[in-house]
Structure formats: structure tokens, C-alpha cells
Specification:
There is one protein chain. The protein is α+β, with helices and mostly antiparallel strands. It has 2 domains: 303 residues, Aminopeptidase, CATH 3.40.630.10; 149 residues, Alpha-Beta Plaits. 35% of the residues lie in helices and 24% in strands. The protein contains 13 helices and 17 strands. Bound molecules: zinc ion.
Amino acid sequence: MRLILFTSLLLASTAASAQTADEWHQRGREIFEASIEIPTVQGRGQMDEMVTYLRGLLEPAGITDITVHDHGADYGGTQSMVIRWPAAEPSGEKAIILLAHMDVVEALPADWSRDPFTFAEEEGYFYGRGTSDDKQGVVAITTALLRLRAEGFRPTRDIIVLFTGDEETVQEGAELAVTRWLDLSTIEYALNADAGGGAMLPSGQMVGFGIQTSEKTYQSFTFTATNPGGHSSRPRPDNAIYDLADTLTRLENHRFEPRLNETTRGYFTAVADLQTPEVRAAIARWLADENDGEAADIIEAAPTETGMTRTRCVATRLEGGHADNALPQMARATVNCRMFPGTDPAALLAELRAIAAPSNVAVEPVLPARPSDPSPLREDVVDAYTDSVRRFHPDVRIVPNMSTGATDGLFFRQAGVPVYGIEASWGVTPTDERAHGRDERIPVRAFYENIDHWTYMIRRLAGGGEEAQ
Ligand SMILES: [Zn+2]
């Protein structure tokens, strides 16, 4: 199976490549190798080397408006960079901003079958920490900018690039960019290299490409039961651990109200035929009647759709009691919620408190929620994405996508800037889904296609709608 796949990758890669594109693929590969081999892990202090390297590529190409922002020692001394390519022929349109992150999750050589920070190409794959998340995004954007400069491209609007240095940890870069470094009134929307992308089945069939327009909101809560306690030889009728356990059982059985928005409606419409007949029928029923909660429950139970139909909350941590021979005076659980976009945090808190009330368990948010609305499905962005991806994968399914997790894009959405996760890289599902994990990798062909994709997207969206090659 694997051999067949690699053979088909090789053949397709040879057929699809033109002469000049090949040269830029090689340039991108060199930049990829150098970037992967700088371990930009929190606490290792190597962001400076990464930033200096990228600056050294861009400045000789004439992209000289580069600001490196220091985050300060409290955040491991990491850095983020803002790159500007001003409009050569201003059309009056606001800027677009391109997002990617330079930092990567730690990787220990002992956990890998190879050195995570030594770049390698093997059997149709590039290996190394960050090959999928998200050095390939940084490299695709950088290579696209270099190529467009070399080809004499004249942007009709300002192009801004934000490469952050802490997306995997505290996301201070994105927050500061939104609150201090950038004037958001000059920006129309963001294109995010840390979301979107395609999935291929082991058979070599492409499932589809997702354009991410929405993400759920993260919020944790503490559930705390308290009790006067006492000697365990004389149990009281009430007990903090039992109170908490009863509450968590009610939470487990609770179903939040199913909800649909423009993104998830488009998503379910596009993926319905990939599902089992039962789930497919439930999707049809739910799309016809949003209030059909029973249909939504069937969809939510499908492993691929977990979290897609509503807010979900789940217990993630537990503590309690203070001695083997004492009645517990306190028992506490952490419950992590992922709110469906548009959910009122106060309403969710009230709903959780109602679940906890019968057992006298107190519910408090850990941090204030930072909700964000879904970005509208802009026709120009969706059309450009569709046209770009279908150059490599004719007629492939394009799916609007809501992430159940979060990226730097969240901060822009919260601030009212629409964000589109438009990666065109892809991998074989589930074997290539190794972000944050062992032996992270990306198909060579996906990496090269993604360079061509970002070149196309920038040319089309920052070039007055000009059709790219
Ligand atoms: Zn990422």
C-alpha cells in the first residue's frame, strides 16, 4: 500500500512541475532545511537566529520594512517579526496580513526514530520538528514573497506578514500584534498558514481541502465541592467527593444545545457523502431542521465529527481530600469547555452552575473567555483558494472548516479581523497527522504545492484580482 502511494506521489510530482517552479521549490527546500535545523523551542533562546536568518533572506530581495519585536525575558525571550511589503500600485484596498508561527513544540531525540532537528528527505517525505506545524507555513510564505519579488510582482495593496514566536505556548505575539504592533483599521483580513489544508486517504484518494473560517472558544472552569469534613470513622451524610462525582456524572450526561453556522453548514454539506449511511441521513435531517437535536446527537457521536455540532465540556483534572483517614473538606475538578462560536460565556456559566447546584458545587471560570465570531465566507478568498488547490487536485472537495482548537488567528478574529486558514499542504490521514508528535513529516509534494499555492494566493488577492499562472 505504502509503496504504491509513494510511486504515485513521485509520478504526479514529476508531471506537475514546470521549470521555473522547480527552481523555487529547490530554494524553498533550502530555506526549509535551514529553518527546521534551528530548534525554535520555548526556552532554548534560538528565535534570534531564526529571525536573523529570515531577515537575511528578505532584505537582499528588497523587502526591507522588517520589525523584530522582543517579548521580554518573562516569555523565554522569544521574538516575533512584522514584515511589510507596501503597495506598488495602491488601489485603495486595505492591507492583507499573512500569519504563521516560527516556534515549535519540544521534541526529544529519545522519543523519535531520528534526530528531530536534523532535516531529512526520505521516501517522499521531509522529516523534522516543524515540517508540518508550522515551519512549512513560514517557509511557504517567505519563498512566495522572494519569488514574487524576483518576478517583478507589483502589489496593489499592502502585504503584511506576522511571524510569531510563541504560538505553541502563551500566544503573546499574536495578542501584542493585535493590541499594540499593528493598526487593525488598515487591515481587511488575515490569511493563516497554521490552519486549513488537505487530507488524503491511504489509497491515495484526496478527501478534500479545508478552509478554516471559525474556531471554538477555549474556557476552563473549576468545579469545587466543600464540606466541614471530620473523622473518616464517622462518615457524614454529605461528602465533598460524592457531591463532585454526582455533579460530574450529570455533566457527562448533559447535552448542550446543537447549533449550526454558515461554516459548519457548508462543512456538513461538503462531507456528508463521506459518512456512514446512518450519519449521512442524520446530517440531511439536521440541515433541514436545525432543531432536530436527535439528528445532531447522532452526528456528534461519529468520531470524525466530535465537537462539531455544539459546545462541549469535559472533566480534565481532579484533586481532593487531605488524608486517608479524614472526610474530604474539598474536592475539585477542572472542566475544559470548547464553546461553539456565538455562545454567550455568561449563559454557559449559568448552564454549568445549574448542573452543579443540586450538589452545592461551586463553578468558576479559570480565566475570562475570549469568544470570536466565525469569519464570513468571503467569495474572493474562497474562490482563490478553490482555484489554487484545484490546479493540483482537479475537482477536489473544498470544505469550510471550524477548528475545535485555537491558533494565533483567534486574536485577530476577536478583534474583528476576519481570518482564513488557507494552507494547501496535506498529508495522508491518519498516518501523517504528527504535529506535536513523533517523527513529524510532510509529503515532499505537499510542501512544493504549498509554495506554489501561497505564491498564487498573494498574487491574486494582493494583485487586484490578477489571475496567477
Ligand atoms: Zn501551529
